[in-house]
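Q: Could you fold this chain for me?
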Amino acid sequence: QVQLVESGGGLVQAGGSLRLSCAASGSISSISALGWHRQAPGKAREVVSSITSGGITSYAASVKGRFTISRDNAKRTVYLEMNSLKPEDTAVYYCAAARSLLRGYDYWGQGTQVTVSS
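A: Sure. Below is the predicted structure, expressed as structure tokens.
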């Protein structure tokens, strides 16, 4: 089992920045990738960004160039640096861990709210 705890959400004005953190614990040696997803009210959950154990990153087109994912293996933490935030970035952001990206994500955090005001 893997436990994920997110932090860093909050209220920010458009154009501002936030950094989300996700601390992982448990059987993290079985994890090959960590990712950030988000779900806005009335919308489906979507993948925002992911990073593999080898450091390969990917981003949704809507956040590319504005968001940066990184990981600190010593701290067992993955980060999402969000810059130039827009009101449409408002959502609950979830951290997730996958044993294999081909099979999808296996573990989820409880989510953290990000609200961007215009």
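A (continued): The radius of gyration is 13 Å.
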